[in-house]
Amino acid sequence: MRKEKRPSSSFALSLQKKAVAYAAWLLLFSLFAFNGLQAQENTIIEISGQVIDQQKREPIPDVSIQIKGSVNGTITNSTGSFVLRTKQKLPFTLVISSVGFQQQELEVKSLGSKLQIELVTQTVLGNEVVVTASRVAENILKSPVAIEKLDIRAIRETPAPSFYDALENVKG
Q1: pLDDT (tens digit, 9 = 90+) per residue, 33-72?
Q2: Which of 7, 14, 110, 125 is 20 to 30 A from 142 via CA?
Q3: Whether this model's pTM surpasses 0.85
């Protein structure tokens, strides 16, 4: 019978040490790689800038700046400046809106200098407001009680010093 040659015990031990070292190195590498990916996902992006009136070239306070499709957002301060911090990945769209101005959408593709956003004035003409003692909204012509309306022309022509003083003079 033939005897099988077995590797020497020192060779087997050396091979085993190399395998353990390789496995430990692979484990450490995968941990660092995973941490790097996770750190990229949790990176906070900071966008800053100022919102101004396009016509008057003055800053606009209390403008809403929101990332489209999310709840992340901020408002401008008294000087029209803002800072928005988010974990949202680029690119994304900012929705900029304020009462009396047209809503604007701005796509942010990269980070860089401060944003300078110009909003265009928008005039909104509303319908007349009917103030009555009724609980149900009614048209002025169908109302069973005497109603007096105060439209924009009446407000301009009133001798009262303010809009609220003019309201006190309305019957009803």
Answers
A1: 665 555 556 788 999 999 999 999 999 999 999 999 999 9
A2: 125
A3: no
64, β-bridge pairs: 75, 97
Q: Which residues of 26-49 are buried (b: 16+ CB within 10 A; e: fewer)?
A: eeeeeeeeeeeeeeeeeeeeebeb
Across the chain, mean pLDDT equals: 80
CB 154 within 8 A of CB 170: no
- Please give the Cα distance from 52 to 76 (Å, whole number): 10
Q: How far apart are CA 38 and CA 45, in angstroms?
A: 15
Q: Is 63 exposed, middle or buried (0-12, 13-18, 19+ CB in 10 A)?
A: buried
- Judge contact between 106 and 115, C-beta under 8 A: yes
CA-to-CA separations, 63 to 40, 41, 98, 123, in angstroms, rounded = 30, 29, 5, 17
- DSSP-derived secondary structure for 5-61: P---HHHHHHHHHHHHHHHHHHHHHHHHHHHHHHHHHTPPEEEEEEEEETTT--B-S
Q: How far apart are CA 52 and CA 50, in angstroms?
A: 7
